[in-house]
Design a protein that fits this description.
- By secondary structure, this protein is α/β, with parallel strands linked by helices.
- The protein is 24% helix and 36% strand.
- It has a 5-stranded mixed β-sheet.
- Strand 5 and strand 6 form a beta hairpin.
- The protein is globular, with a radius of gyration of 15 Å.
- The protein starts with a helix and ends in a 7-residue tail after the last strand.
């Protein structure tokens, strides 16, 4: 077992917490075009992680998380990029959460991106997890200043290895 996974996840630094966040999804056929056709200054879009490379049908909904950072949007995106994000994990339970797994300084790190108790957000987390299973672990993280749909700060295509129960 990785010794870093035995340590509890660390909170994201206070100054880098987004104003708002939400679960989201894009059809596989639109995700790559969305990510590559816009001037997004910070991005990690490995062609090996594209829906096409994974053989996903264009109608499969790729789950993701959108962070709205306001004026801190650029700093949030830069911090995420420095952490070398690997995947986002939805954690169910009484206190639910969203954990960012990263590979910083050649070590695995876990960061608490959000915690919540709202049942509706929890249901969205369950849907996120179901879509993650259907997308073979492919998902995205998008940072934007606001919800205008006009500007984006950072986008990452992430992949979580899913372990199937036998």
């Amino acid at each position: 077992m990785n010794p870093n996974l035995a340590r509890p996840p660390q909170p994201v630094p206070e100054a880098l917490r987004p104003n708002r966040w939400q679960f989201a999804a894009l059809p596989a056929g639109e995700l790559w075009d969305f990510a590559t056709s816009r001037p997004i200054p910070i991005q990690s879009l490995s062609p090996e992680r594209s829906p096409l490379a994974l053989g996903l049908a264009s109608t499969v909904l790729i789950p993701g998380v959108i962070l709205e950072g306001g004026r801190q949007s650029r700093w949030i995106a830069q911090w995420i990029q420095e952490q070398q994000p690997l995947w986002l994990e939805y954690v169910p339970g009484e206190l639910q959460g969203l954990i960012l797994h990263s590979h910083f300084n050649q070590e695995h790190h876990r960061w608490v991106m959000a915690t919540f108790q709202d049942p509706e957000v929890g249901q969205a987390g369950v849907t996120y997890q179901q879509r993650l299973n259907l997308s073979q672990g492919l998902h995205f993280l998008l940072v934007q200043p606001d919800d205008s749909g006009q500007t984006y700060t950072g986008i990452w295509l992430l992949h979580q290895e899913l372990h199937q129960e036998s």
